[in-house]
């Protein structure tokens, strides 16, 4: 805040002395910063717009007028990598007039336009450009829009330019054009500038049409220190040294593209050797100390790019693809066209890294490279279709991993990591459809959530299954071919998939007819199964916690098999349930009631299956006899469905818990991920209850054979599947108190800590478990020493150490840790702070502490991170998800009331967490005796 206020004061003095009319744009929380400058508001222009920061609900539209369409941005930017952290910009924006108008309206935020520099020209075809006087300039703070009112109208069909100069902020909020820093190997501070424009922050770097449906070309020039390299979406065309000694890099013109995928990066980073991939040059960039650890992504990307080019049948569109590892980064990565930026810890993979780190780096690369087609080449027309690009990139990320590492079982892992992960959230009445109306940047930020990403990807996987892999691929290729360099919505996609996959659809029914029942309503269905000697009878209803709703209906693809002829490779639906929930679907044919039946094979549909009690019993008996008759994803589906249905009372908990008993013989990680997801719910709710000892004893009874068959020590030569299973087994065995696991972890920690060096390495596969075990027994001096080691460690070790520091049993150290996480001079990066809150809240002793810290420091945290930072919602969830008291609901209601207008991206999350706490209370009232009695008898 100190630098922000100093910079504002400098600007105020300059602009008032020169009689500039200045438009200063702030988020609501920035009013505090303005207040630090006496009289600052007096320099703002009069406006009829609401600038109070109070936003009505529902939020009014903040969409741009449709009278103009951008054609080309000619943009020069000069960021200053020193206090007061500003940037200078010059813009010439060429537009076509779509409707006659007297106004030019552009998105703009956190910048000052120098009004004496604003000039407008207009011309028609074959005409000479003429000046158009600007008679008034206004700013609407709520809509984040600058308007130049003109003396003469711009006529439909004509062309026009607006040229201007401005000053902006090189901020520290990890959005727009922002600054980052790292310590070089000689321990000096090295500053850099990078960008994060998605979804609505390009307007912080330059005025423009900051909506995804507005595409144009960009001619970009960056001014930077002479020893730094400048990057943008396209290759550099030329570079020169200016009279002031700075370098000026001019880039080739981009194809037409949206503002949110424009990118700039200026640093002293180094690169790997450039690779030629057909007509594309490719490399990665990072700070020098970690460049050699970017080789995993560097080596994997060519195969992923080739897979996606062949899959889509369209070559990558740009002449180059750079990937940059940025020390401070808001998201894991960003798909900027031709310049993909990563959070450094997501790209830098150490030798011997954990299999989870390897998988995520490969998946993330597939996700971001897939965006070069879905999101960049073809762009959602508006943010209500966010899921269309994020769901596709997520699904294609898994397909890419499956292609380049087929032994990793990526599509089985999808079931637990994505589909089952999002279903509990989508079971809340406060959930939202994946296609949701949004009008304002605050609302847009809220929908960058699990629904858009994970449910979106799960629904696309369902379409992939029911139209067939070949038809799906053909439909995507046609969609991209016909709509490249333009915008699209879901109906464009459904039209192309219907044309390619019509043979698998019900008669007279299109993909659109089916999928609008999934995209335009929240939640998902349960398919209830009953049987007679002659038929299988299926009904559907919506699954919502705390509500039985039979009025909602979906088109549901049905796949099934029986004990008489088990076949799990079926993906084409054997039947369809129409979207009328009153209808009973009858599947005729003899099914012996003594034989099990399984539906929704390999969890290919986004729904749960509720069997009759006897059918659950038959499935359980098969699991006990020979569980590997069912594929891993099918076993995972049985476990997840049983436990979640029991939570809402659709089946008895004794049936659901009986399904877990076979796990003493389970070796595959995918069913274990499903089971441990369910166990984590019990673990969180009961961690301070007298039944916790019995709970741990039962879980340990199941986990011990799995852990003991795998062992503690990593074998780098083992398969990915074995290594990933070992990592999970070790984590849970030690957490549950397995004596052998704890002894080995303590021994490794003692050896490591005695070396007292950032260069000492614990194997990545078990590092967190070892560190957490040691930290739990450490005193203040050791804890503080570990924090110092963490802050000086390479990315992977740093991440594990920071997470493990939350394992301390000293509440006062946890409190100190939370304060350090949100202190600018602590050495903890901004993007690391939300994870620290989650880690503290994940410890039974730290849960109440983390929640109290978050709610009592909300405005400070929101100001520190930025009010539209989606991690505000993440922290609300991580701190309250396992509470089960009316007191917590009252505290959430109080937070909502006290922080009205300041919740930002946490607005929707408050409602979701109040509901989740109510679900937990209902669980205690309905199920505590049954669950604890069953566990006590089986512990």
Summarize the structure in short.
Helix content is 41%, strand content 19%.
Polypeptide structure, described:
- This protein has 939 residues and is an alpha+beta fold.
- It has 5 domains: 62-268, Sandwich (Immunoglobulin-like), CATH 2.60.40; 276-523, Neutral Protease, domain 2, CATH 1.10.390.10; 525-628 and 637-643, Immunoglobulin-like (Sandwich); 739-809, no CATH class; 810-926.
- Helix content is 41%, strand content 19%.
- The protein is built from 29 helices and 33 strands.
- Strands 1, 2, 4, 5, 6, 9, 12, 14 and 15 form a 9-stranded mixed sheet that branches. Strands 17, 18, 19, 20, 21 and 22 form a 6-stranded mixed sheet that branches. Strands 25, 26, 27, 31 and 33 form a 5-stranded mixed sheet that branches.
- Strand 14 (236-241) and strand 15 form a beta hairpin.
- It is globular, with a radius of gyration of 28 Å.
